Amino acid sequence: MKKTYKIDVDCANCANKMEEAAKKTEGVKDAVVNFMTLKMIVEFKEGYDPKEVMSRVYDNCKVVEDECEIFY
Amino acid sequence: MNKKQKKMLVRIIISLIATILLLTIKTEGLLRLALYLAVYFYIGYDILSKAFKGIIKGQVFDENFLMAIATVGAFVLAITDGSGDYLEAIAVMIFYQIGEWFQSYAISKSRKNISALMDIRPDHANIERDGEIIEVDPDEVGVGSIIIVRPGEKIPLDGIVIEGSSSLDTSALTGESLPRDVSLDDEVISGCINMTGLLKIKTIKEFGESTVSKILDLVENASNRKARSEDFIARFAKIYTPAVCLSALALAILPPLFILITSGEMTFDDWVYRALTFLVISCPCALVISIPLSFFGGIGGASRAGVLVKGSNYLEALSKTKIVVFDKTGTLTKGVFEVKGIHHNVLENEKLLAYAALAESASSHPIAKSIIKAYGKKLDLDRVKDIKEVSGNGIIAKVDDKEVAVGNDKLMSSLGVSYHDCHMIGTIIHVAIDREYAGHIVIADVDKDHAKEAIMTLKEIGVKKTIMLTGDKKEVGEYVANELGIDEVYTELLPQEKVDKVEELLTKKDPKDTLVFVGDGINDAPVLTRADIGIAMGAMGSDAAIEAADVVLMDDDPLKISKAIKIARKCLGIVYENIIFAIGVKLICLLLGAFGIANMWLAIFADVGVMVIAVLNAIRALYVDRL
Which CATH number is B542's domain given? Predict the structure, then answer.
């Protein structure tokens, strides 16, 4: 399953770091962060609850970039 | 400017003024340090706190950390050597903030610019309810509703004209500036602007399924598919920063240690300063921001020209196009038959056409239609009777009480009429009147207006080979290929054989080159997906083409293929310029810094300057009109 979330982040490198962090999160099959459109597209692994996974993604992103926001 | 940017701008201006004041007022000792520190914390508190948080979370090596270390280091050096020169630390922080502010401003500005360019989203639809025209959200209009579009308004949903006629401006969708005339029963697509007359339209799709929504969705999500150069930069940034930090550490320790051992001189201060300069240069911002911005601009510019590119990766591949494979019908030719000539006729052309058209008047076959169209006048159906269709061969009918036979050579043979073959390529329609040969009509598919020019420009911009695949007969295929100047042609291919052929071409080519297949997207979806890049033509309203292709040309013009390649090349050119420029300047600064030639001032100017230039260069990708 794929879902798109709106994000807010200031710099392009931070967006790359968020993408990296999201990819490594448990339950995430693949993630793409589009800095230009400020969107995060997350593909979830089978059998995971998107809401639960997204809260983990959020925490992981907060570690690499304190000033980021994900609207999920 | 948003609130955050305004706040930051105020902070930058205040600290600039404060710094200038500090420079003019002579202060000494601790008071001086305290005043400078106050300005320093005012301009840099967010950076310092982010750096601190980063360290706690184990995220060293980010820009904030680097800036914090470099500026704090500069302060410490100024205190230890007793010079009291604190200006450098503050200046570096201020310039770093100016750089960040400009970056954020430029990005949001270009985001806005690009979305304004693609502003084809209609904001309302007019429907009639109880005799009154009211505005509703296009989302709320169901299939089969009647909508009213006034002159100057955008057509909100795909539909069919049921009343009125007008000219439509399709340039936002196709890049084509010539208006399109529509009248009763014509299909219209959303996103066009109604220019002259009031139209009543019956909708055939919901808003979410309408052309305008599909296109917007496609363009907005195109930059999700990242290009190889984008990935390269992301990887580069990941190793670049740590590498520079480690070399900074080495620079601070190893050379002074060596000098200490060999000559006994203490030079630590000097080398620590050089190491701090290193840290200022180590920020990868310029690179990381300019690459996606260039691609975003390129995709935005292309869509303005009527070329939809579905991803940055496709734009990258498109720039390396070396082989272009075409489908014939609908791609290079119009796919409609036209009368090309009338030969061996005993009657006048017009009279012969009239007889043929009347005989064919009841048929819906494309050939019949083309004859009727060529005749061009209203058919007096009273003159025709007893129409008999001879399956696959033609038609025999009574026109003006004469027996008129219109059809192929088999029909002539069966009637015992001797006929003449034709030297022209195409479908030959013989006409016999009362079993006497009256001549033949040559019907052929016509080349698109720009087909020949399109092949020529492709060659001019360095495409090595052009190939045509067609299911049509050998003579017809070779004739068209020859006329248009195509290098190779393969004829009489079934759809599956087209896929095989493309696969064969793919294995034979240099892996660095891109093979592009151009089709009309109707029956060549498998080939479109199989080729490196599939380009679908004339996709206005055709969902299959938008689905299967990587690049979609919104109008039928084959000239847009070379335009798309040129746009891709310009965009990739900008990407490479930025990569080389940014990395180059950084390396030079690192070198100068290591030898003590560049100071921190130069380093921060280089860093911010490179970023500003790279961002401005990236925005250039948006402008593709003159390509």
Answer: 3.40.50.1000
